[in-house]
Amino acid sequence: MSADDLQLRVVPSTLTEADLPGSNTADLSYTQRRPYEATRQRLDRALQAVREAPFAPQHGETPEAYRRRLLGNLATHTVTHRRLDTRSITADSIDRFEMRIAAEALDSPRRMGTLAPIHSRDRAGRECTEFVGDVGAWLNDFKAPAIVSPPCINGVPQQIPVIPFAGAGR
């Protein structure tokens, strides 16, 4: 018995139902949508990190073509795969390219010195926000310059003796 037989209510926050205009997912049954959603689920964190808003699968687009299109969008945000033509990737090596491209795209906010929010939902349906990128993007505002002062005993500055280090094993 499939989900179509049960006539389950479609949750509007699913990955392909809440996409930008141009989606044709209403034409697809639950079982036809699953390969597209699996691809989107694997690449969703990286897409959010680079603030890329992909469209849903287009009419007549295969799951493999959709995967290559999303990888092409992510590849522009990487250093090593910036000019990659995703059509030239063989079917055997696309999994390795996907992992590398997604990892570099997740690292993109750190290279740019910013933080990027990644929104997800936990099992209870609560929205969780995780930030990836450079912690210094927000933490530097709260850092103060280091203050160097000698230790004081009863208000009198003291000088600490320096013991030279002879090195290990001597």
How would you describe this protein?
This protein is α+β, with helices and mostly antiparallel strands and 170 residues long. It has one domain. It has 5 helices and 4 strands, in the order H-H-H-H-E-E-H-E-E. The chain has helices spanning 3-6, 30-49, 63-75, 94-112, 136-139, and strands spanning 115-121, 127-133, 152-153, 156-157. The chain has a two-stranded antiparallel sheet. It has a two-stranded antiparallel ribbon with strand order 3-4. A hairpin with a 5-residue loop joins strand 1 (115-121) and strand 2 (127-133). Helix 2 (30-49) packs parallel to helix 4 (94-112). The longest helix is centred in the N-terminal third of the chain and has 20 residues, at 30-49. It is elongated and about 80 Å long. 19% of the residues are buried.
Q: How would you describe this structure in keywords?
A:
two-stranded antiparallel sheet, alpha+beta, single chain, 170 residues, two-stranded antiparallel ribbon, 35% helix, 11% strand
Short description:
The chain has 5 helices and 4 strands, in the order ααααββαββ. The protein is α+β, with helices and mostly antiparallel strands. It has one domain (3-157).
